Amino acid sequence: MVTLYEGAIIALLVGGVFFGIVAAVGLLRLPDLYTRAHGASKTDTLGAGLSLAAAAAALGSGLPTVKVVLLLVFLFLTNPTAAHAITRAAADQGIEPWTSEDRGDGE
Amino acid sequence: MALIRTCHGHHDNSDCCQLSSGRARPVGGPVARDRGGATVTGEKLLVPVSESPTLRNTVAYAVRNAVEGEDRYDAVHFVYPASRRVAGEEYIESARELLERVAVWAGEDLGEDDPDLTVETELIGVDDYLFSPGDYVDLLTDYARDEGIEAVLLDPEFNPGENTPLLPPLEAELERAGLVVETAPVERGTRRDRLVRRAGLGQFVLLAALSYGFYLLIGGSLAAFDLVTGAISAAIVATVLWRISLTGPVRPGQLVARLARMLVFTPYLLYEIVVANLHVAYVVLHPSLPIDPEVVEFDAAVWSEIPVTTLANSITLTPGTLTVDVTRQHFTVHTLTESSREDLLDGGLERAVRFVFYGRAAARGPGPRERGDDGGEES
């Protein structure tokens, strides 16, 4: 039998995997660079976040947990920055965002 | 081998520019010569230089243009018009250093490929008075005439006087003097604010303390060795970065208050992230992919760098919204669905950021929509 604590860890891990998969599916299904940046950079953040939270919980209280939390903090700082850098570069290059009017153009 | 000469006199004293390479300097009009199959005229290009953000690119453009452009040039003359009487000896010294750098850059751009481009750098007008654009025009046209130069390439940010914008009148006047003038099609890379700013002891101590704390936390021990190496590392970090990482005065009270409010903000942000993530997961996994992306722009009611950055990153972290660009407080945000757009313009995150940085009173107040700024669509 798993304890409640282990159950929580497993739940966190499952959530992490789920959002990781959502990020991958989003990357494949969404139509253009901007929408893909949504899918890839952020559901990914939560996926990685939940996985790291599971790791922190599994490690218990102590120094490794502090380090995992720091990892989380830096992940939450760097991920949006990277997404912003990519989309801004795209905007500077004049790439037009996909809109729902483009739907059905055989796109 | 490409020929690069540097001359630091004013151009009247042309003795110092005598070549020792044995190649005759073409005087006057174009001299046709054969260079590796392609006939090249003995034309020269004049490039006035001064300290400018686009100078490096202008040098590259000039060299590339001279070697492989439509009108090839035989020689490129980089000249720095600088007057000792107006600007002082120090300025002349820095002009000299700049010209040396230009010569090095030109050498780098040439590489080993082209054996026959002469690059000259020269300081001109040292003993003249240079005030108005007219003075610079006279100086440059005199130089061009003496050297038999007919074409001028201008750096778009050329401004040796450091006072009035010189380029437009300069361009027109040089053309009137019968020279072919082109402005180099170069842009400054990124517009940078000054990286190094004023800072005091407070910033130094705070940065050193933060670095020290972080070092000990990561190291996970308080042994004498770690205490000493940590102190050394923190001192080095603070010495190098104290005028870069932290700006503004250090007010411990305010800092603690902000950190405390940040602790309140974090769960709220996490909650928003989870909710919005579930929403995006639903949208992405839905068979018909119900997205309606749109770019919205609004002015956020937050000020100064760190709050704006926090808001921009929070918007990006919240799925369905993605900050594309921020100029001061003007946000350009890409939104994935109608409901994420609604949430953004309701201004919940913005209020939360205001709460963290300015306190509870500032948290109340209208969101972007209520300010009548409801996201004009970017065409």
From TrEMBL, chain A:
<dbReference type="GO" id="GO:0015385">
    <property type="term" value="F:sodium:proton antiporter activity"/>
</dbReference>
<feature type="transmembrane region" description="Helical">
    <location>
        <begin position="48"/>
        <end position="77"/>
    </location>
</feature>
<keyword id="KW-1133">Transmembrane helix</keyword>
<feature type="transmembrane region" description="Helical">
    <location>
        <begin position="7"/>
        <end position="28"/>
    </location>
</feature>
<dbReference type="Pfam" id="PF03334">
    <property type="entry name" value="PhaG_MnhG_YufB"/>
</dbReference>
<keyword id="KW-0812">Transmembrane</keyword>
<protein>
    <submittedName>
        <fullName>Na+/H+ antiporter subunit G</fullName>
    </submittedName>
</protein>
<dbReference type="InterPro" id="IPR005133">
    <property type="entry name" value="PhaG_MnhG_YufB"/>
</dbReference>
<keyword id="KW-0472">Membrane</keyword>
Automatic annotation (TrEMBL), chain B:
<protein>
    <submittedName>
        <fullName>Monovalent cation/H+ antiporter subunit E</fullName>
    </submittedName>
</protein>
<dbReference type="Pfam" id="PF01899">
    <property type="entry name" value="MNHE"/>
</dbReference>
<feature type="transmembrane region" description="Helical">
    <location>
        <begin position="263"/>
        <end position="285"/>
    </location>
</feature>
<feature type="transmembrane region" description="Helical">
    <location>
        <begin position="199"/>
        <end position="218"/>
    </location>
</feature>
<keyword id="KW-1133">Transmembrane helix</keyword>
<keyword id="KW-0812">Transmembrane</keyword>
<keyword id="KW-0472">Membrane</keyword>
<dbReference type="InterPro" id="IPR002758">
    <property type="entry name" value="Cation_antiport_E"/>
</dbReference>
<dbReference type="GO" id="GO:0005886">
    <property type="term" value="C:plasma membrane"/>
</dbReference>
<feature type="transmembrane region" description="Helical">
    <location>
        <begin position="224"/>
        <end position="242"/>
    </location>
</feature>
<dbReference type="InterPro" id="IPR014729">
    <property type="entry name" value="Rossmann-like_a/b/a_fold"/>
</dbReference>
<keyword id="KW-1003">Cell membrane</keyword>
<dbReference type="GO" id="GO:0008324">
    <property type="term" value="F:monoatomic cation transmembrane transporter activity"/>
</dbReference>
